[in-house]
Amino acid sequence: MPSMMSDKLSRDAVDFIDDGYLQDLADGAQPDAARIREIIAKSLQKEPLSVEETAALLAADDPELCEEIFEAARELKRRVYGNRIVLFAPLYVGSYCINDCLYCSFKRSNPDAMRRTLSDDDLRAQVRALEDRGHKRLILVYGEHPWYDADYIARTVRLVYETTSPPHGEIRRANVNAAPLDHEGYAKVKAAGIGTYQIFHETYHHATYDRVHPPRTRKRDYLWRLDGLSRAFESGCDDVGIGVLFGLYDWKFETLGLVSHALHLQGKYGVGPHTISFPRLQPAHGVDLEEFPHLLGDFDFKRLIAILRLSVPYTGLICTARERAELRREVMAFGVSQIDAGSRIELGGYTEAGDAQQMAKEQFSLGDIRPLDVVVRELLETGYIPSWCTSCYRLGRTGEHFMEFAIPGFIKRFCTPNALTTLLEYLRDYASPETRAAGEKAIAAELEKLEDSPQKRELIDRLNRIRTTDQRDLYF
Ligand code: SF4
Ligand code: SF4
Questions:
Q1: Are residues 247 and 326 part of one domain?
Q2: Pocket of ligand 1 (CB under 6 A)
Q3: Quick one: 354 and 422 in the same domain?
Q4: The pLDDT value given to residue 244
Q5: Which positions ≥6 away from 288 have C-beta within 8 Å?
Protein backbone atom coordinates (compact mmCIF):
# COMPACT_ATOMS: atom_id res chain seq x y z
CA MET A 1 0.00 0.00 0.00
CA PRO A 2 1.42 3.45 -0.87
CA SER A 3 2.33 5.69 2.02
CA MET A 4 -0.12 8.39 3.08
CA MET A 5 2.91 10.67 3.22
CA SER A 6 4.24 9.79 -0.24
CA ASP A 7 5.35 13.34 -1.06
CA LYS A 8 7.69 13.26 1.96
CA LEU A 9 9.41 9.96 1.34
CA SER A 10 13.08 9.53 0.45
CA ARG A 11 14.25 9.77 -3.16
CA ASP A 12 13.04 6.76 -5.19
CA ALA A 13 11.43 5.31 -2.07
CA VAL A 14 10.31 1.78 -2.65
CA ASP A 15 8.84 -1.03 -0.60
CA PHE A 16 11.69 -3.49 -1.09
CA ILE A 17 10.11 -6.29 0.96
CA ASP A 18 8.68 -8.92 -1.38
CA ASP A 19 6.70 -11.19 0.94
CA GLY A 20 6.29 -14.02 -1.57
CA TYR A 21 9.98 -14.15 -2.41
CA LEU A 22 11.16 -13.96 1.19
CA GLN A 23 8.62 -16.55 2.32
CA ASP A 24 9.77 -19.00 -0.36
CA LEU A 25 13.33 -18.49 0.81
CA ALA A 26 12.33 -18.85 4.47
CA ASP A 27 10.52 -22.11 3.71
CA GLY A 28 13.37 -23.50 1.61
CA ALA A 29 14.74 -26.97 2.20
CA GLN A 30 18.12 -27.45 3.81
CA PRO A 31 20.88 -27.26 1.17
CA ASP A 32 23.61 -29.88 1.28
CA ALA A 33 26.28 -29.51 3.92
CA ALA A 34 28.94 -28.53 1.38
CA ARG A 35 26.91 -25.48 0.35
CA ILE A 36 26.41 -24.43 3.99
CA ARG A 37 30.13 -24.76 4.63
CA GLU A 38 30.91 -22.71 1.53
CA ILE A 39 28.70 -19.90 2.83
CA ILE A 40 30.24 -20.11 6.28
CA ALA A 41 33.69 -19.88 4.71
CA LYS A 42 32.62 -16.77 2.80
CA SER A 43 31.43 -15.05 5.95
CA LEU A 44 34.61 -15.97 7.79
CA GLN A 45 36.37 -13.91 5.12
CA LYS A 46 34.24 -11.05 6.55
CA GLU A 47 32.17 -10.77 3.40
CA PRO A 48 28.52 -9.82 3.92
CA LEU A 49 26.07 -12.50 2.79
CA SER A 50 23.20 -12.11 0.34
CA VAL A 51 19.59 -12.70 1.34
CA GLU A 52 19.70 -16.05 -0.48
CA GLU A 53 22.86 -17.14 1.34
CA THR A 54 21.34 -16.10 4.66
CA ALA A 55 18.28 -18.17 3.81
CA ALA A 56 20.50 -21.20 3.21
CA LEU A 57 21.96 -20.84 6.72
CA LEU A 58 18.48 -20.42 8.19
CA ALA A 59 17.41 -23.64 6.48
CA ALA A 60 20.21 -25.59 8.15
CA ASP A 61 18.15 -27.42 10.78
CA ASP A 62 20.54 -30.31 11.21
CA PRO A 63 22.02 -30.10 14.76
CA GLU A 64 25.55 -30.68 13.54
CA LEU A 65 25.31 -27.88 10.99
CA CYS A 66 23.72 -25.61 13.58
CA GLU A 67 26.74 -26.23 15.80
CA GLU A 68 29.05 -25.36 12.90
CA ILE A 69 27.16 -22.12 12.42
CA PHE A 70 27.45 -21.31 16.13
CA GLU A 71 31.16 -22.04 16.07
CA ALA A 72 31.68 -19.88 12.96
CA ALA A 73 29.80 -17.02 14.62
CA ARG A 74 32.00 -17.35 17.71
CA GLU A 75 35.07 -17.30 15.52
CA LEU A 76 33.91 -14.26 13.54
CA LYS A 77 32.98 -12.44 16.70
CA ARG A 78 36.45 -13.13 18.09
CA ARG A 79 38.13 -11.99 14.88
CA VAL A 80 36.07 -8.89 14.21
CA TYR A 81 35.03 -7.62 17.62
CA GLY A 82 37.53 -9.23 19.95
CA ASN A 83 36.43 -9.54 23.56
CA ARG A 84 34.95 -6.05 23.97
CA ILE A 85 31.31 -5.52 24.93
CA VAL A 86 29.91 -2.01 24.72
CA LEU A 87 27.57 -1.04 27.58
CA PHE A 88 24.64 1.37 27.54
CA ALA A 89 21.39 2.07 29.39
CA PRO A 90 17.88 2.88 28.16
CA LEU A 91 16.13 6.00 29.38
CA TYR A 92 12.39 6.23 28.83
CA VAL A 93 11.45 9.86 28.31
CA GLY A 94 7.74 9.68 27.57
CA SER A 95 5.12 6.95 27.41
CA TYR A 96 2.20 8.74 25.76
CA CYS A 97 1.37 7.04 22.51
CA ILE A 98 -1.22 7.51 19.80
CA ASN A 99 -0.67 4.05 18.37
CA ASP A 100 -2.35 0.86 19.39
CA CYS A 101 0.21 -1.84 18.70
CA LEU A 102 -1.22 -5.17 19.81
CA TYR A 103 2.08 -6.26 21.37
CA CYS A 104 2.86 -3.22 23.52
CA SER A 105 1.48 -2.16 26.88
CA PHE A 106 1.92 1.52 25.99
CA LYS A 107 -0.82 1.13 23.37
CA ARG A 108 -3.48 3.77 23.64
CA SER A 109 -6.21 1.24 24.41
CA ASN A 110 -4.44 0.05 27.58
CA PRO A 111 -6.09 2.01 30.41
CA ASP A 112 -3.57 0.69 32.96
CA ALA A 113 -0.46 2.00 31.22
CA MET A 114 1.32 4.63 33.25
CA ARG A 115 1.27 7.74 31.06
CA ARG A 116 3.99 10.15 31.85
CA THR A 117 6.42 12.52 30.23
CA LEU A 118 9.48 13.33 32.28
CA SER A 119 9.65 17.00 33.17
CA ASP A 120 12.99 18.71 32.55
CA ASP A 121 13.85 18.30 36.23
CA ASP A 122 12.84 14.65 36.19
CA LEU A 123 14.94 14.07 33.11
CA ARG A 124 17.98 15.73 34.69
CA ALA A 125 17.50 13.61 37.81
CA GLN A 126 17.39 10.42 35.75
CA VAL A 127 20.49 11.40 33.80
CA ARG A 128 22.43 12.22 36.96
CA ALA A 129 21.40 8.93 38.53
CA LEU A 130 22.69 7.10 35.45
CA GLU A 131 25.91 9.11 35.43
CA ASP A 132 26.44 8.37 39.12
CA ARG A 133 26.34 4.67 38.29
CA GLY A 134 28.97 5.12 35.59
CA HIS A 135 26.96 5.22 32.38
CA LYS A 136 28.26 7.21 29.42
CA ARG A 137 26.00 5.96 26.62
CA LEU A 138 22.21 6.14 26.66
CA ILE A 139 19.37 5.29 24.37
CA LEU A 140 16.47 7.69 24.86
CA VAL A 141 13.10 6.09 24.20
CA TYR A 142 9.94 8.00 23.23
CA GLY A 143 6.41 6.79 22.51
CA GLU A 144 4.82 8.06 19.31
CA HIS A 145 2.90 11.21 20.09
CA PRO A 146 2.68 14.71 18.60
CA TRP A 147 4.29 15.99 21.81
CA TYR A 148 7.43 14.01 21.04
CA ASP A 149 8.19 15.72 17.75
CA ALA A 150 11.66 16.45 16.37
CA ASP A 151 11.93 19.73 18.30
CA TYR A 152 11.10 17.93 21.53
CA ILE A 153 13.54 15.10 20.85
CA ALA A 154 16.30 17.57 19.94
CA ARG A 155 15.62 19.61 23.07
CA THR A 156 15.70 16.61 25.39
CA VAL A 157 18.88 15.27 23.75
CA ARG A 158 20.56 18.63 24.41
CA LEU A 159 19.31 18.57 27.97
CA VAL A 160 20.85 15.13 28.46
CA TYR A 161 24.24 16.28 27.17
CA GLU A 162 24.11 19.42 29.30
CA THR A 163 23.36 17.49 32.47
CA THR A 164 26.51 16.47 34.25
CA SER A 165 27.29 15.04 37.64
CA PRO A 166 30.69 16.32 38.76
CA PRO A 167 33.42 15.38 39.01
CA HIS A 168 33.24 12.84 36.18
CA GLY A 169 29.62 12.14 35.32
CA GLU A 170 28.63 12.99 31.76
CA ILE A 171 26.74 11.39 28.91
CA ARG A 172 28.94 11.20 25.85
CA ARG A 173 26.51 9.63 23.44
CA ALA A 174 22.72 9.79 23.37
CA ASN A 175 21.08 7.46 20.87
CA VAL A 176 17.39 7.75 20.11
CA ASN A 177 14.59 5.23 19.63
CA ALA A 178 11.53 7.09 18.40
CA ALA A 179 8.96 7.31 15.63
CA PRO A 180 10.07 7.92 12.04
CA LEU A 181 10.55 11.62 11.23
CA ASP A 182 10.51 13.64 8.02
CA HIS A 183 13.70 15.03 6.48
CA GLU A 184 13.46 18.28 8.37
CA GLY A 185 12.96 16.45 11.65
CA TYR A 186 16.05 14.30 11.21
CA ALA A 187 18.11 17.39 10.43
CA LYS A 188 16.96 18.88 13.75
CA VAL A 189 17.86 15.85 15.83
CA LYS A 190 21.16 15.49 14.02
CA ALA A 191 21.99 19.09 14.93
CA ALA A 192 21.36 18.21 18.59
CA GLY A 193 24.18 15.64 18.37
CA ILE A 194 22.33 12.34 18.49
CA GLY A 195 24.27 9.13 18.06
CA THR A 196 22.28 6.34 16.42
CA TYR A 197 18.65 6.85 15.33
CA GLN A 198 16.85 3.55 15.86
CA ILE A 199 13.60 2.53 14.25
CA PHE A 200 12.44 -1.04 14.63
CA HIS A 201 10.19 -2.20 11.86
CA GLU A 202 8.71 -4.74 14.36
CA THR A 203 7.64 -7.13 11.56
CA TYR A 204 8.52 -7.00 7.89
CA HIS A 205 5.62 -9.31 6.98
CA HIS A 206 2.92 -7.09 5.48
CA ALA A 207 -0.18 -9.01 6.61
CA THR A 208 1.17 -9.33 10.15
CA TYR A 209 2.16 -5.68 10.15
CA ASP A 210 -1.44 -4.79 9.32
CA ARG A 211 -2.81 -7.18 11.93
CA VAL A 212 -0.77 -5.80 14.82
CA HIS A 213 -1.09 -2.13 13.84
CA PRO A 214 -4.81 -1.37 13.73
CA PRO A 215 -6.34 0.95 11.11
CA ARG A 216 -6.38 4.66 11.79
CA THR A 217 -3.09 4.60 13.66
CA ARG A 218 -0.01 6.37 12.39
CA LYS A 219 2.18 3.32 12.66
CA ARG A 220 -0.09 1.46 10.24
CA ASP A 221 1.73 3.17 7.34
CA TYR A 222 4.21 0.43 6.44
CA LEU A 223 6.17 2.33 3.81
CA TRP A 224 6.51 5.48 5.90
CA ARG A 225 8.19 3.42 8.59
CA LEU A 226 10.24 1.24 6.24
CA ASP A 227 11.51 4.38 4.52
CA GLY A 228 12.19 6.13 7.82
CA LEU A 229 15.92 5.48 7.99
CA SER A 230 16.40 6.31 4.31
CA ARG A 231 15.09 9.79 5.07
CA ALA A 232 17.47 9.86 8.03
CA PHE A 233 20.42 9.18 5.73
CA GLU A 234 19.30 11.90 3.32
CA SER A 235 19.18 14.36 6.21
CA GLY A 236 22.69 13.63 7.44
CA CYS A 237 21.89 11.00 10.11
CA ASP A 238 24.18 8.34 8.74
CA ASP A 239 24.26 6.27 11.89
CA VAL A 240 21.07 4.22 12.13
CA GLY A 241 19.76 1.10 13.84
CA ILE A 242 17.16 -1.39 12.62
CA GLY A 243 15.29 -4.09 14.51
CA VAL A 244 12.49 -6.61 14.62
CA LEU A 245 10.25 -7.68 17.46
CA PHE A 246 10.69 -11.43 17.19
CA GLY A 247 7.58 -13.42 17.94
CA LEU A 248 5.19 -11.49 15.74
CA TYR A 249 5.87 -13.62 12.69
CA ASP A 250 8.07 -16.43 11.34
CA TRP A 251 11.60 -15.79 12.63
CA LYS A 252 13.26 -16.92 9.43
CA PHE A 253 11.21 -14.48 7.36
CA GLU A 254 12.00 -11.65 9.77
CA THR A 255 15.72 -12.39 9.70
CA LEU A 256 15.60 -12.16 5.91
CA GLY A 257 13.70 -8.87 6.29
CA LEU A 258 16.49 -7.47 8.46
CA VAL A 259 19.18 -8.54 6.03
CA SER A 260 17.14 -7.09 3.10
CA HIS A 261 16.86 -3.79 4.95
CA ALA A 262 20.58 -3.71 5.72
CA LEU A 263 21.45 -4.45 2.09
CA HIS A 264 18.96 -1.86 0.86
CA LEU A 265 20.58 0.89 2.93
CA GLN A 266 24.04 -0.28 1.96
CA GLY A 267 23.07 -0.28 -1.74
CA LYS A 268 21.32 3.08 -1.69
CA TYR A 269 23.58 5.07 0.63
CA GLY A 270 26.81 3.08 0.67
CA VAL A 271 26.47 2.40 4.42
CA GLY A 272 24.57 -0.31 6.22
CA PRO A 273 22.94 0.06 9.63
CA HIS A 274 25.27 0.58 12.56
CA THR A 275 23.28 -1.79 14.75
CA ILE A 276 20.61 -4.47 14.60
CA SER A 277 18.35 -5.25 17.56
CA PHE A 278 16.25 -8.37 17.96
CA PRO A 279 14.02 -8.07 21.03
CA ARG A 280 11.67 -10.99 21.63
CA LEU A 281 8.05 -10.51 22.49
CA GLN A 282 7.74 -10.70 26.29
CA PRO A 283 4.82 -10.80 28.68
CA ALA A 284 3.44 -7.32 29.31
CA HIS A 285 0.35 -5.95 30.94
CA GLY A 286 -2.54 -5.71 28.48
CA VAL A 287 -0.83 -7.96 25.94
CA ASP A 288 -2.22 -11.42 25.35
CA LEU A 289 0.60 -13.69 24.23
CA GLU A 290 -1.99 -16.23 23.05
CA GLU A 291 -2.55 -13.95 20.10
CA PHE A 292 0.97 -14.57 18.86
CA PRO A 293 1.60 -18.03 17.44
CA HIS A 294 5.20 -17.30 16.39
CA LEU A 295 6.89 -16.89 19.78
CA LEU A 296 10.54 -17.77 19.46
CA GLY A 297 12.27 -20.38 21.65
CA ASP A 298 15.81 -19.99 22.97
CA PHE A 299 17.45 -22.31 20.49
CA ASP A 300 16.09 -20.56 17.41
CA PHE A 301 16.85 -17.22 19.05
CA LYS A 302 20.48 -18.25 19.31
CA ARG A 303 20.43 -19.44 15.70
CA LEU A 304 19.14 -16.11 14.45
CA ILE A 305 21.86 -14.20 16.31
CA ALA A 306 24.61 -16.48 15.02
CA ILE A 307 23.28 -16.22 11.46
CA LEU A 308 23.00 -12.44 11.64
CA ARG A 309 26.60 -12.31 12.89
CA LEU A 310 27.67 -14.22 9.79
CA SER A 311 25.45 -12.27 7.36
CA VAL A 312 26.36 -8.74 8.42
CA PRO A 313 29.87 -9.05 9.87
CA TYR A 314 30.39 -5.31 10.39
CA THR A 315 27.08 -4.46 12.05
CA GLY A 316 26.83 -4.21 15.82
CA LEU A 317 24.32 -6.61 17.38
CA ILE A 318 22.42 -5.50 20.47
CA CYS A 319 20.94 -7.89 23.04
CA THR A 320 18.91 -6.10 25.67
CA ALA A 321 18.06 -6.89 29.26
CA ARG A 322 14.72 -8.26 28.14
CA GLU A 323 16.65 -11.51 27.99
CA ARG A 324 17.71 -13.54 31.01
CA ALA A 325 21.30 -13.21 32.20
CA GLU A 326 22.25 -16.83 31.31
CA LEU A 327 21.04 -16.45 27.77
CA ARG A 328 22.77 -13.10 27.34
CA ARG A 329 26.00 -14.74 28.45
CA GLU A 330 25.62 -17.36 25.78
CA VAL A 331 24.75 -15.08 22.88
CA MET A 332 27.57 -12.67 23.68
CA ALA A 333 29.98 -15.39 22.65
CA PHE A 334 28.64 -15.65 19.14
CA GLY A 335 27.70 -12.31 17.96
CA VAL A 336 26.41 -9.70 20.34
CA SER A 337 28.59 -6.61 20.64
CA GLN A 338 26.44 -4.31 22.81
CA ILE A 339 24.29 -4.92 25.89
CA ASP A 340 22.44 -2.68 28.32
CA ALA A 341 23.02 -3.10 32.03
CA GLY A 342 21.39 -1.93 35.22
CA SER A 343 18.38 -1.01 33.11
CA ARG A 344 15.08 0.37 34.36
CA ILE A 345 12.28 0.82 31.90
CA GLU A 346 9.62 2.36 34.10
CA LEU A 347 9.45 6.14 33.69
CA GLY A 348 11.55 7.68 36.46
CA GLY A 349 12.84 4.22 37.43
CA TYR A 350 16.45 5.27 38.06
CA THR A 351 15.56 7.44 41.01
CA GLU A 352 12.13 6.51 42.20
CA ALA A 353 11.59 3.47 44.36
CA GLY A 354 9.92 0.90 42.24
CA ASP A 355 9.90 -2.71 41.36
CA ALA A 356 11.32 -3.23 37.89
CA GLN A 357 8.78 -5.94 37.34
CA GLN A 358 5.70 -3.78 37.77
CA MET A 359 4.29 -4.82 34.46
CA ALA A 360 1.31 -2.52 34.49
CA LYS A 361 3.69 0.40 34.29
CA GLU A 362 6.24 -0.84 31.83
CA GLN A 363 6.31 -1.44 28.11
CA PHE A 364 7.37 -5.06 28.70
CA SER A 365 9.15 -7.00 31.44
CA LEU A 366 12.90 -7.36 31.93
CA GLY A 367 14.82 -10.61 32.27
CA ASP A 368 18.09 -9.18 33.61
CA ILE A 369 17.76 -6.52 36.29
CA ARG A 370 21.22 -6.82 37.86
CA PRO A 371 23.05 -3.57 38.66
CA LEU A 372 25.73 -2.29 36.26
CA ASP A 373 28.57 -3.07 38.68
CA VAL A 374 27.54 -6.74 38.90
CA VAL A 375 27.28 -7.06 35.11
CA VAL A 376 30.66 -5.38 34.64
CA ARG A 377 32.29 -7.71 37.16
CA GLU A 378 30.80 -10.76 35.53
CA LEU A 379 31.97 -9.62 32.10
CA LEU A 380 35.48 -9.14 33.44
CA GLU A 381 35.52 -12.49 35.18
CA THR A 382 34.42 -14.26 32.01
CA GLY A 383 37.07 -12.74 29.79
CA TYR A 384 35.26 -9.71 28.32
CA ILE A 385 36.38 -6.11 28.36
CA PRO A 386 33.44 -3.79 29.08
CA SER A 387 33.71 -0.62 27.00
CA TRP A 388 32.03 2.77 27.11
CA CYS A 389 33.89 4.01 24.06
CA THR A 390 32.21 6.79 22.09
CA SER A 391 35.21 8.03 20.15
CA CYS A 392 34.24 7.38 16.52
CA TYR A 393 31.04 9.29 16.80
CA ARG A 394 32.78 12.20 18.49
CA LEU A 395 35.62 12.29 16.00
CA GLY A 396 33.20 12.19 13.07
CA ARG A 397 34.07 8.59 12.18
CA THR A 398 30.46 7.75 11.28
CA GLY A 399 28.60 6.75 8.14
CA GLU A 400 30.89 6.10 5.21
CA HIS A 401 33.82 7.32 7.30
CA PHE A 402 32.90 4.78 9.91
CA MET A 403 35.03 2.05 8.44
CA GLU A 404 35.26 0.50 11.87
CA PHE A 405 36.30 -3.06 11.34
CA ALA A 406 36.91 -2.86 7.62
CA ILE A 407 40.21 -1.06 8.15
CA PRO A 408 42.96 -3.51 9.03
CA GLY A 409 44.25 -2.85 12.51
CA PHE A 410 41.34 -0.57 13.41
CA ILE A 411 40.43 -2.53 16.54
CA LYS A 412 44.01 -2.61 17.72
CA ARG A 413 44.55 1.08 17.09
CA PHE A 414 41.25 2.43 18.38
CA CYS A 415 38.74 0.05 19.90
CA THR A 416 41.00 -1.82 22.32
CA PRO A 417 42.81 1.25 23.70
CA ASN A 418 39.51 3.12 24.07
CA ALA A 419 37.93 0.14 25.79
CA LEU A 420 40.77 0.06 28.29
CA THR A 421 40.74 3.79 29.04
CA THR A 422 36.96 3.89 29.48
CA LEU A 423 37.06 0.75 31.60
CA LEU A 424 39.70 2.27 33.83
CA GLU A 425 37.60 5.44 34.20
CA TYR A 426 34.71 3.27 35.34
CA LEU A 427 36.89 1.35 37.77
CA ARG A 428 38.35 4.49 39.32
CA ASP A 429 35.17 6.50 39.50
CA TYR A 430 32.30 4.08 40.09
CA ALA A 431 33.25 0.44 40.65
CA SER A 432 33.04 -1.57 43.85
CA PRO A 433 36.39 -2.78 45.24
CA GLU A 434 35.81 -6.31 43.86
CA THR A 435 35.01 -5.04 40.38
CA ARG A 436 37.97 -2.68 40.48
CA ALA A 437 40.30 -5.55 41.34
CA ALA A 438 38.89 -7.73 38.55
CA GLY A 439 39.19 -4.83 36.11
CA GLU A 440 42.77 -3.95 36.97
CA LYS A 441 43.70 -7.59 36.42
CA ALA A 442 41.97 -7.59 33.04
CA ILE A 443 43.68 -4.36 31.95
CA ALA A 444 47.08 -5.77 32.88
CA ALA A 445 46.33 -8.94 30.89
CA GLU A 446 45.25 -6.93 27.82
CA LEU A 447 48.36 -4.75 27.96
CA GLU A 448 50.44 -7.88 28.14
CA LYS A 449 48.96 -9.00 24.82
CA LEU A 450 49.92 -5.77 23.02
CA GLU A 451 53.31 -5.62 21.37
CA ASP A 452 55.56 -2.76 22.34
CA SER A 453 54.91 0.25 20.09
CA PRO A 454 54.65 4.04 20.40
CA GLN A 455 50.89 3.60 20.63
CA LYS A 456 51.15 1.11 23.48
CA ARG A 457 53.42 3.53 25.34
CA GLU A 458 50.91 6.32 24.73
CA LEU A 459 48.11 4.08 26.03
CA ILE A 460 50.06 3.26 29.19
CA ASP A 461 50.70 6.95 29.70
CA ARG A 462 47.00 7.75 29.36
CA LEU A 463 46.06 4.96 31.75
CA ASN A 464 48.50 6.35 34.27
CA ARG A 465 47.03 9.80 33.88
CA ILE A 466 43.55 8.41 34.55
CA ARG A 467 44.88 6.61 37.63
CA THR A 468 46.74 9.53 39.11
CA THR A 469 44.88 12.64 37.96
CA ASP A 470 41.38 13.85 37.20
CA GLN A 471 41.97 13.70 33.46
CA ARG A 472 39.26 11.74 31.67
CA ASP A 473 37.94 11.13 28.19
CA LEU A 474 41.37 10.54 26.67
CA TYR A 475 40.14 8.82 23.56
CA PHE A 476 42.02 7.67 20.46
FE1 SF4 B 1 3.37 3.14 20.95
FE2 SF4 B 1 5.72 2.11 20.26
FE3 SF4 B 1 4.15 0.85 22.00
FE4 SF4 B 1 3.42 0.96 19.45
S5 SF4 B 1 5.26 -0.08 20.26
S6 SF4 B 1 2.09 1.34 21.22
S7 SF4 B 1 4.22 2.96 18.86
S8 SF4 B 1 5.14 2.83 22.30
FE1 SF4 C 1 33.21 1.75 18.41
FE2 SF4 C 1 34.95 3.43 17.26
FE3 SF4 C 1 35.07 3.02 19.89
FE4 SF4 C 1 35.82 1.10 18.19
S5 SF4 C 1 36.81 3.10 18.48
S6 SF4 C 1 34.52 0.86 20.01
S7 SF4 C 1 34.38 1.41 16.51
S8 SF4 C 1 33.36 3.96 18.79
A1: yes
A2: 97, 99, 101, 104, 106-107, 143-144, 219
A3: no
A4: 98
A5: none
